[in-house]
Amino acid sequence: MSYSAIRDQIETELKSITGIGNVHDYERLQNVEKTVVTFKKSGAVCAEWTITRQSTIESTEDYRIIERSHVFIIRGYYPLNDKNATEKTFQDLVEDVMAHFRYLDTLSDTVFTQKPLELVVFEPRAFGNTLVHYAEIKLDLLEKIVL
Predict the structure, then answer these.
(1) 13 neighbors 5 (Cβ within 8 angstroms)
(2) For 116-141, what is each residue's pLDDT tens digit?
(3) How far apart are CA 6 and CA 8, in angstroms?
(4) Cα 69 to Cα 71: distance, rounded to the nearest angstrom
(5) How many C-alpha atoms does 49 have within 13 Å on its Cβ side?
(6) How, if at all, do strands 22-24 and 48-62 pair?
(7) Mean pLDDT of 45-73
(8) 101, 117 in Cβ contact below 8 A?
(9) Domains of the chain: which residue ranges?
(10) 3-state secondary structure of 69
(11) How far is it, in rounded angstroms, from Cα 93 to Cα 125?
(12) At residue 83, what are phi and psi to the nearest 5 degrees?
């Protein structure tokens, strides 16, 4: 299974979660002053998620099997509005993502989850003039390629 197929499968799994919002299969950033993210920056009340690979380590058990350990980062963004307790809403969405992958042993017949997801960052961040809730969830996968 290729990197893009793994990424596509993660995207499919995320989109299957009720209320997840918009899922993008890459980091949607651009290098323009005061415009850090290209997706919704206004007062929209929809979560936005991006998927990116952080690292891959390759090893060989023998000459017929290649193991690739992938670390994917699922980033979530949610418009911050204290009056509407948006942190609670976004925390619940993060929990839904983690619960979904917790019980998912495999993405395919060759890609397996190595360990439970890890919430590594949850904090408010400013993008331009917009304050959002921001989360990073780490997903460790093991891919076995039989030659």
Answers:
(1) no
(2) 899 999 999 887 667 889 999 999 99
(3) 5
(4) 7
(5) 25
(6) parallel
(7) 88
(8) yes
(9) 3-146
(10) strand
(11) 17
(12) -60, -35
The pair of structure tokens assigned to 49 is 């998620």
CB atoms within 10 A of CB 94: 21
Close Cβ partners of 44 (under 8 Å, ≥ 6 residues apart): 79
134, two tokens: 């921001």
Phi, psi of 93 (to 5 degrees): -65, -40
Q: What's the token pair of residue 147? A: 């030659």
Res. 26 pLDDT band, cuts 50 70 90: confident
3-146: which CATH topology?
Answer: STM4215-like (3.30.2000)
At residue 3, what is the residue type? Y
Distances 50 to 15, 25, 53, 75, 77 between C-alpha atoms, Å:
11, 6, 10, 5, 9
Provide CB contacts within 8 A for 116, sequence distance 6+: 98, 101, 102
pLDDT at 76: 93
Query: 114 vs 7, 69, 145, CA distance in Å?
Result: 16, 8, 15
**91's tokens:** 């925390």
- The Cα 43–Cα 100 span in angstroms is 28
